Amino acid sequence: QVDLTESGGGSVQAGGSLRLSCAASQLAVTMGWFRQAPGKEREGVASIGTYDIEPLYADSVKGRFTISKDTGENRLNLQMDNLKPEDTAMYYCAASKLPQWRGTLIGARYDDWGQGTQVTVSS
If exposure means fewest CB atoms within 10 Å of the residue's CB, which of 3, 56, 67, 120 is most exposed? Predict the structure, then answer.
């Protein structure tokens, strides 16, 4: 089991930036960020696969979010720029034992989840 703890959430105005970080007891072969807004289904946001090649992004965040791994500190980061009100959600870090070339945005393929960190973007 991988223990995951997210941090870095907060409230910003539209157009602003936030950097989320996930401290992991160990980095899994595939890791990702997901989000869930009130009344909506959980959505895959970004994922990084086994070989750290061409991370996968949801269309809604492409060009604005960047996922990265810090293997030295066992951290998964998500840089979020040009935030929009529709980005408001609880953000979760997730770890998967399944090797994936570019990662996966399918939540069912992940084994371990963090408790989440809230991101609120005002217009």
Answer: 3
Answer whether residue 47 shows pLDDT above 90. Answer: yes
Q: Is the backbone of residue 71 left (phi > 0), alpha (psi -120 to 50) or beta? A: alpha
Token duo for residue 91: 């953000």
Q: Give the chain as a 3 state SS string.
A: CCCEEEECCEEEECCCCEEEEEEECCCCCEEEEEEECCCCCCEEEEEECCCCCCCEECCCCCCCEEEEEECCCCEEEEEECCCCHHHCEEEEEEEECCCCCCCCCCHHHCCEECCCEEEEEEC
Residue 52 has pLDDT above 80, yes or no: no
pLDDT tens, position by position, 73-117: 999 999 999 999 999 999 999 999 988 888 999 999 999 999 999
**How far apart, in whole angstroms, are the C-alpha atoms of residue 70 and residue 62?**
21
Beta strand 117-122 with 10-13: parallel, antiparallel or unpaired?
A: parallel
